[in-house]
Amino acid sequence: MSDAAVDDIWAVSQEAVNRSGWLVDRVLAAPRTAGLVARALDPTACWAGATFDLLQPNEASRIGPADLLAAALVGAPPSALAVRHLLDPVVARRLDAHLRAIPADVDLWSAPGRVLDAAAELWSALQEADGIGLVRATKLPARKRPRLVPLLDPTGATLLGLPPGAHWATLRAVLADAGRRSRLEALRPPGAGAHPAPLRLLDLAVWAAAGGGRRDRTGTVPGPP
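Request: output the structure for the sequence above.
Response:
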């Protein structure tokens, strides 16, 4: 299949892009967003923040125990069965091959269809493990490729009006707008440096819009997505 044909598969309607773009803009402009993003990235606070991305070791082409711990920090701990499956040497080599097919220096908004295909293949391969499921299968690719794969869970996807089965494709088109990316980058706290990636700032903004930072009835504080 040609590159153009693959890109066509990942195309989304302009109506969907306009709707999600409006909702993203509303999230970014909400009065409490910037403050909560800064709180989530404060290393003295109780949330995962940048630790999700920075916890070491974090080899670009390997999923290891630190990656599973990072997933647990954002509320997606794998089951014991999943841990044994993912760390099995045979399975690990297969997942490594999937990761090597996904460049680490591509942003979602500029990713060609073939790169998204490769990321989707990794996402599907991860779901073969018992106890992973749709949400957990997104957390690991998001850690390994933070510039490409968003952390969004179903709640966040609904908040942004992302069409079912087209979350990545719709966000790719929405974030192709340079002005929107500038407004997203404006949420980066002073002194935060290059981490997290811009896409993770959006994840945190959505977490804030979904009620991040509020204590639930048990007294615990939900972590950011």
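Residues 215-225 have pLDDT under 50 and may be disordered.
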